[in-house]
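Lab meeting, item 3. Inverse folding demo.
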């Protein structure tokens, strides 16, 4: 595995509106292009790294990047930042979770800046849970929320905007300042270069968390409305589905992405029975991939050459097999294929998960709870895009 493998997989085309439930981890991730933008520059993944030889290095990571549309190739910057962040985490040898997420965020900033020289950038929010420690990090105005035992919602990240800086320093908000026209401008972002200060936060391993891009919390979604949605949704899949649908109801002026987790479970760090080495599994809003991690790949350089985007046409299925889920009683249908690629790319293992939910799961959604509550006009627009 190398950072190029991760970046290529993240860069493949996404559906205009998609939500995926990560059954193994009880999480859900969803994204929508909206009704105005021509390209979705948000990227969000759930990743699990497990090691048989060094189980203390295993981790679960939830990450979201929102590419900056007013700059060069915001979507590409998001792909590079997220893949570099994940790859750097696999190189952690010793140290705390706070040190791990800080160094991974700085590595992502360095790589985006090296390639775009402050002409392109992205936000980054993520939280990473190791067997004995956990921490979150943010750069930009994407957000991290904590969901309490009674489903109370608390924002734990600070926005790296002009008004966010004022809030931290003097308790001033945008309406007090009279600077609404530029109060939302980013004070720092991934790709800024030297001097960046990732904001690191401690997190509670017994709590659920929600990551959002500003297409969720910044366009028509008041804090109170967001709290009501969290309080009324019984599953992560239902919450994520309704949030990205509501963003379109509010005009769909920006890409909108949400990722929701559940409290951590100890068995998540146990390496799967089908591996004897080190593997990283990655899920996004439309599918899953798996990469074997060798000792040689841990010393691979960070994205030295530009990579080309790949699509589903490059994936040639060879064999299929079933693997039981940790949550569902009946395993979902999956297709796992080994793709033998060029020497530079290495061996890429793709697993495409059937988007249909299994017949019996702990988070099964009843027809009456379906998030597809779009008005007829939006349904027609969605059909034309699909």
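The presenter then showed the designed sequence:
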């Amino acid at each position: 595995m190398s950072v190029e493998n991760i970046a290529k997989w993240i860069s493949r085309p996404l559906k205009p509106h998609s939500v995926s439930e990560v059954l193994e981890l009880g999480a859900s991730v969803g994204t929508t292009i909206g009704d105005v933008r021509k390209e979705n520059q948000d990227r969000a993944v759930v990743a699990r790294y497990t090691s048989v030889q060094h189980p203390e290095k295993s981790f679960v990571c939830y990450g979201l990047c929102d590419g900056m549309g007013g700059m060069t190739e915001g979507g590409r910057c998001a792909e590079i930042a997220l893949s570099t962040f994940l790859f750097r985490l696999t190189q952690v040898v010793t140290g705390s979770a706070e040190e791990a997420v800080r160094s991974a965020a700085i590595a992502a900033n360095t790589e985006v800046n090296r390639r775009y020289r402050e002409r392109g950038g992205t936000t980054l929010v993520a939280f990473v849970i190791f067997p004995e420690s956990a921490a979150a990090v943010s750069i930009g105005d994407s957000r991290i929320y904590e969901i309490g035992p009674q489903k109370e919602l608390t924002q734990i990240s600070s926005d790296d905007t002009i008004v966010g800086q004022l809030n931290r320093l003097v308790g001033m908000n945008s309406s007090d300042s009279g600077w609404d026209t530029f109060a939302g401008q980013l004070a720092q972002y991934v790709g800024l270069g030297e001097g960046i200060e990732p904001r690191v936060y401690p997190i509670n391993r017994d709590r659920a968390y929600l990551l959002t891009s500003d297409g969720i919390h910044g366009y028509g979604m008041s804090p109170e409305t967001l709290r009501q949605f969290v309080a009324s949704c019984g599953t992560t899949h239902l919450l994520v589905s309704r949030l990205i649908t509501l963003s379109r109801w509010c005009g769909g002026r920006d890409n909108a992405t949400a990722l929701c987790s559940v409290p951590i479970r100890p068995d998540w760090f146990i390496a799967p029975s089908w591996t004897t080495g080190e593997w990283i599994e990655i899920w996004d809003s439309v599918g899953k991939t798996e990469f074997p991690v060798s000792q040689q790949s841990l010393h691979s350089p960070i994205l030295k050459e530009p990579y080309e985007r790949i699509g589903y046409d490059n994936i040639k299925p060879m064999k299929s097999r079933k693997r039981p889920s940790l949550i569902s009683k009946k395993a979902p249908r999956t297709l796992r294929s080994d793709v033998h690629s060029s020497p530079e790319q290495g061996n890429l293992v793709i697993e495409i998960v059937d988007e249909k939910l299994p017949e019996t799961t702990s988070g099964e959604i009843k027809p009456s709870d379906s998030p597809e509550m779009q008005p007829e006009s939006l349904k027609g627009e969605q059909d034309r895009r699909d």
